[in-house]
Write a structure and sequence with these properties.
The complex is a heterotrimer. Chain B is mainly α. Chain B has one helix spanning 2-31. The radius of gyration of chain B is 14 Å and the shape is rod-shaped. Chain C contains six helices and no strands. Chain C has helices spanning 4-22, 25-31, 33-38, 40-68, 71-84, 99-172. The chains are: A mainly alpha, B mainly alpha, C mainly alpha.
Chain lengths: 200, 32, 173
């Protein structure tokens, strides 16, 4: 079973195994290249030796023998190094959380809780709208009340002015003066009536 | 397989942040 | 703790030492026996060169890998993260494989923030509306008062008006 090391890939941006494969292939290429260079040098050296009975084929066989051994050791050593790399270097310990996931530990919310939270937000939004409407209505009523109060005060002022007018023309209390006027006129009427009877 | 792993891992790394940007913008717009 | 970069160098160094040990001169001459018998000095020099070149190539590769992916900085950053998290022992969270589920926790803090902001706003608005409502009620009372006053004045004037009418009637007579 392959451990995809996805969490490590999330951190490194590549899978550790790929990284190791890349290193393995590079190292192996170098081993082959160096071996090839060794063989070329040896063959070239042989060219310079007169009546030499070692053929390039024989050199090639020697190279294959040495490389075969080296490759075996290389794979074994690299395998061990790879294990150590994957365990100690390109590895995120199980108790470690990457910074971008720090929320996961702070808020582990179930689906139900999440739904509840969203519903609560919806309700709060509605409630807020309602409150804002209430505010508008209250402000509107205050505005209206100001107008009504002004109108009523205006009416009261009107009445006051009427009284003032009355007062301005010598009648201190308009109502009293009107009453006294009515009484005086009744007296006049009685007086006139009396005079007329006397005259008759 | 390797590409799939890296692709998923990169999405896990980047998408939450991107989605979060949209969520935050949505919340802000709603509030405005 | 040993830094990951140091560990890496140590492991590659160990790997190389063992590989070089495997490619010892003894084994080299075993394989190239006849050439060695023919030209021992050349064999020695070629073997030395082989070892040197192998080591140089491998270290160059490691250096390149370190530079290419900015590996040193990445490994040092991982060292830092591990150091900061060493206090905890239980296994940490890992992606569940259900994106919606994992995303929820990322989003929740912002939803909680939104909820708290809304709560505060609603609360503030409720208080403000409470004050406004009281103001409206007070004004209603004031308006009622004024209406009563106006009504009283109006009735007074109407009474006056009636009396005036009587007066006029009287005077006319």
């Amino acid at each position: 079973s392959v451990n995809p090391m996805t969490y490590e890939a999330q951190f490194f941006g590549f899978t550790p195994q790929t990284c190791m494969l890349r290193i393995y292939i590079a190292f192996q290429d170098y081993l082959f290249e160096v071996m090839q260079a060794v063989e070329q040098v040896l063959v070239k050296k042989l060219d310079g030796v007169s009546n030499c009975d070692i053929s390039p084929i024989q050199i090639r066989k020697c190279t294959e023998k040495f490389l075969g051994f080296m490759k075996g050791r290389f794979d074994s050593l690299f395998g061990k190094m790879e294990q150590l790399f994957l365990q100690l270097i390109l590895h995120i310990p199980p108790n470690i959380l990457l910074p971008e996931d720090k929320f996961q530990e702070l808020h582990s919310y179930s689906e139900e809780q999440f739904q509840l939270l969203k519903e609560e937000i919806e309700q709060l939004q509605e409630k807020y709208k309602t409150e804002l409407c209430a505010k508008q209505a209250l402000l509107a009523e205050l505005e209206e009340q100001s107008v009504v109060q002004a109108r009523l005060r205006q009416t009261l002022t009107l009445f006051d002015e009427l009284i003032n007018v009355g007062r301005h023309h010598g009648t201190s209390d308009f109502r009293e003066s009107l009453v006294s006027l009515v009484q005086n006129s009744r007296k006049l009427q009685d007086l006139r009536g009396h005079i007329e009877r006397e005259g008759a | 397989f390797d590409e799939i792993i890296v692709d998923i891992a990169m999405k896990r790394k980047q998408y939450p942040r991107k989605i979060l940007e949209y969520v935050i913008n949505t919340i802000k717009t709603k509030q405005e | 703790p040993v830094s990951r970069v140091k560990l890496l160098d140590t492991m590659v160094d160990t790997f190389l030492q063992k590989l070089v040990a495997a490619g010892s001169f003894q084994r080299f001459t075993d394989c190239y026996k006849r050439f060695y018998q023919l030209q021992p000095d050349v064999t020695q020099r070629v073997h030395d060169k082989f070892i040197t070149q192998l080591q140089t190539s491998i270290w160059e590769e490691i250096t390149e890998i370190k530079q290419e992916g900015n590996m040193e900085a990445v490994l040092n950053a991982l060292d830092q993260i591990v150091e900061e998290g060493k206090g905890r022992t239980e296994p940490a969270w890992r992606p569940s494989g259900v994106p919606e589920e994992d995303l929820r926790s990322t989003i929740v803090p912002y939803f909680l923030q939104q909820r708290d902001t809304l709560r505060r706003r609603v609360q503030r608005q409720e208080v403000e509306n409470q004050q406004l409502a009281e103001a409206v009620l007070a004004r209603r009372r004031q308006v009622e008062q004024l209406q009563l006053q106006v009504q009283a004045r109006q009735q007074a004037w109407q009474a006056l008006y009636r009396e005036q009418r009587e007066l006029v009637a009287v005077l006319r007579e």
